[in-house]
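Model: Ready when you are.
Researcher: Fold this.
Model:
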Amino acid sequence: MTALYALPDHEVVEALVPTIGHTRLSNDAGVERIRAVPGMVPLAIDPEIGEDGQPTGPGAVLWADIGQHRFREWQYMYTVQALARDGGIGEAFKTDFDILLDDRILADPISPSGFMFHISRCGSTLSAKALARSPRHVVINQGGPLQRGFWAKLTRDWQQPLEATPENLHAFRNLVLAMARRRNADELYSFVKFISWNTLYMDFAMQAFPQVPSVFLYRDPVEVIASVLRETSAVMWAKGRRQAGFLTGLPWQDTVAMGDVEYLARIFARYLELADDAGARVADINYRSINPDNFPAMLSRGLKFDPGEDELALMCEQFRFHSKDDSDSQTFKDDSAAKQSEISEADKALTARLCGPAMARLDSSPANLFPRSALV
């Protein structure tokens, strides 16, 4: 399986939906089509910035009609892939980026009921897919437009910091709401699971939606690193590029020769530290505590969301299956021990030095829904 989630979102979408680049509409024309077509949502954002860091255009939003398809695939990009394969993509076009400042693009949006940030490979996909089992829920699982393009546009490909200006926050709000459009009459709630490195923009997202509760899911970084080394990730694509400087907090050139384990450990340490700094604004959940018995409390205490017993039972069915298998043909098997065995003792020590202090603080934090002393 190609790791679509590891590549720039606009490149993936343009490859899957070649017609999307054939038509570039004015903002007024784009608004007209968005409002006229109930299944029209943004699939990706092209920052239109060249390798030299110079703009090649004003930035573009890539839109397509996905009809009434419910987000059930384990990631947004695999929804696009499945629809493209099966002929399920309708009308498609581009608009300029600044259409996101036009509130007319909001056609029956569902305001988010919860945000999910995470360290990667830590039960976040499982939790999001469990939520997505209910037909009442629109779950944006690592939405393509928020994977890279949006942030690259606002930072000029990480040549400047992201600023929480009214304009930038407005564009973010409208993008999230446009993705979470009600396309089926029974849809009442929406949830957004961000790509892991968006954790570094957690404060920005919470400023845009101050009333939306958020959780941060994390796991022993040794096991996360082992998983990434097996399957790659978006942060590995960024290694040796300007974005890597933002991810590590170091000059991006330093990441070119940096070992993969150190590179990942430095990034994951920043996620953990930022989540710890967020305090009570974000509920923390260790992977070891994510199970069917705790899931109701994750929703109730973490996301302030209390579905009925029947709906909870439906969602908890997901815990029986491998979360990255959309066919539900593979049962879940805990591979923590195998992942621990794949990392050398020297690399474990390096990871512990970089990530251990913040990990320990999170495990015992008052913001942890299941603190270390109560882990089950």
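Researcher: Now this one.
Model:
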Amino acid sequence: MVETGFSSFDTMVDKANRLLKEIEQVFGWPKERRNQSYAALRGVLHALRDRLSVDETAQFGAQLPTLIRGIYYDGWKPAGTPVKMHREEFFARVRTEFPYAVEGGTEELVHKVLDVLKDHVSEGEWGDLKARMPKSLAAVLP
């Protein structure tokens, strides 16, 4: 656990590290590849955020751990959303922020990262998220 001297900050950093560690474990990546797990999370969150309506973006973001929520909203332009994108466009969007090669390709990356994220939001919110996505993308959501 990181010690910042302020317990609320320590908790936020700890939750963010746990989520990144979960992504690393799913892929079998060592901790030394933390930049890669961060890039995977960031790429998937940004593609998801940009595809959602402003209201749904806010509802989903409200359930994310605080530091992860900051990553999610970083660079967001609400006036330009939702960006209509289908499955391949969504994966291409993720690849712009995840420049690494990964076994199973981008689709597998997206699926695994979303599977980790699913455990960090309520079941009801996850259901709402799936319901608001086009069928081609809803099929990617675990």
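Researcher: Key takeaway?
Model: The chain has eight helices and no strands.
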